[in-house]
Amino acid sequence: MRILLVEDDPEQREPLQTALMRSGHLVDGVGDGAIAQHLLSDQPYDLLILDWMLPGKDGITLCRHVRHAQQATPILLLTAKDTTADKVQGLDAGADDYLVKPVDVAELLARVRALRRRSPHWCGDTLQVAALQLHLDTLQLCHHDTQVQLKSAEFQLLEYLMRHPRQVLTHGQLEQALWTWDAVPESNAIASRMRRLRQRLRLLGVEDWITTVYGMGYCFQPPSIS
Amino acid sequence: MKRWKLTHWQMLPVRVRGGGIIAIPIVCLITSLIAVAWLKMSLTEDEMWVQHTQVVRLESKRLLNALIDAETGMRGYGLTQREEFLTPYHEARRVIPPSLIRLKQLVQDNPTQVAQMEIIHNQVQETLMLLEQKVMLQQELKQQRGQSGEMVVAVAELYDWLNAGKAAMDNTRQAIDQFAAVEEQLLRDRQQHQAQYRQITWRVLWIAGGLGLVGTALAVHLFWQLEGELTTQATHLQAANRQLTAVCTQLERFTGNASHELRTPLAAILSNAQVALMDLADWTETDPQREALHQRLTKIVALTKRMSELVQQLLWLARQEGNPAIAPFAPLDLRSWLLQWASIGQQQATDAGLTFQAHWPDEPLLVSGDGVLLGQAVTNVLTNACRYSPAPGTVRLEVIPTPADLILEVRDTGMGIPPEALPHVCEQFYRVQPGTSHGFGLGLAITQQIITVHGGKLRITSALGQGTTVAIALPRLKPPFESGSL
Question: Which of A23, B30, B95, B435 is surrounded by the fewest CB atoms within 10 Å?
Answer without folding.
Answer: B435
